[in-house]
Amino acid sequence: MRNFAFAGLIVLFSITVNAQIYKWVDENGKTQYTDIPPPPGVAKEGKRLNIKSSPASGNSETSQSRNLAEERLEFDKRQQNKKEEEVKQQATAEESQKKCIDAQGQLRIYTDSPRLTVPDGAGGIAYVDDDVRQKKIDEANKAIAKFCK
Questions:
Q1: N or C: which end of the chain has fewer CB within 10 A?
Q2: Domain residue limits, the chain
């Protein structure tokens, strides 16, 4: 109940708070703008102004539409960049999957073949000894660890 009464008082005071601006000319001939009423000597020349709050720029609708257009362009750019990044990630994932499958196939070849042969570079074939086979198996396992996540 106490909070309700406090909230009611705040609402009541916020409604009654209304800033007034007064315009008057002092004895030196300068125009003064204040939020307090003018002194009694200039009361008949004092004028109470009703000023309503307005945006800082004079052409608010134009600037707002310009700001909205700029925000929309930035949003579109971000969306386009996001789509491009997703396409790149998908291409990278597909490439990694292909490399994974290739590495698994090579591992099967190195482990399942009893006598492994490779081209010797001169048009013939050469038999692979156990050290080279183990080296190739290790390379295939590293590739699998890298690309098969």
A1: N
A2: 16-53, 54-149
